[in-house]
Amino acid sequence: MASLEVKVPPPVAALLFGSVMWLASKVVASIGVPFGVRLGAAVVLASVGLSFGSSAMLSFVRTRTTMNPTKPSATSSLVTGGVFRLTRNPMYLSLLLYLLAWAAYLSNWLAALLVPLFVVYITELQIKPEERALSALFGAEYASYKARVRRWL
Fold this sequence. Notes:
about 0% strand; globular
């Protein structure tokens, strides 16, 4: 499992999960939620995701640290302000919200079952390795941050 850590960029993983969700929706019939409700839920979820993701990226740009998820040891500063006060992983949370939006739009129980698998995948193969790298880089400062702010929400 360690050989897969931080290898696939999370947006690529989210696109792969989204594609599998779409395929799943072709195998099993939808649960019949009206189109307007599906679309409304999807727009709300995706909008919240966009807010989290763009705010986090802007924070990284402002602090001039890397956004490259495949090189967590290249991080030059620990970002703890803004949206990072609510979640340690707002960019991954945004991807999760996009997948939830996609699941709502597809209105398919099999597609929705894949969303928790994305959480497990990102937690195990991306977030935990990043946490180890940030602990090595920032020590007590990162430990204090981890104690104050949850991994997801």
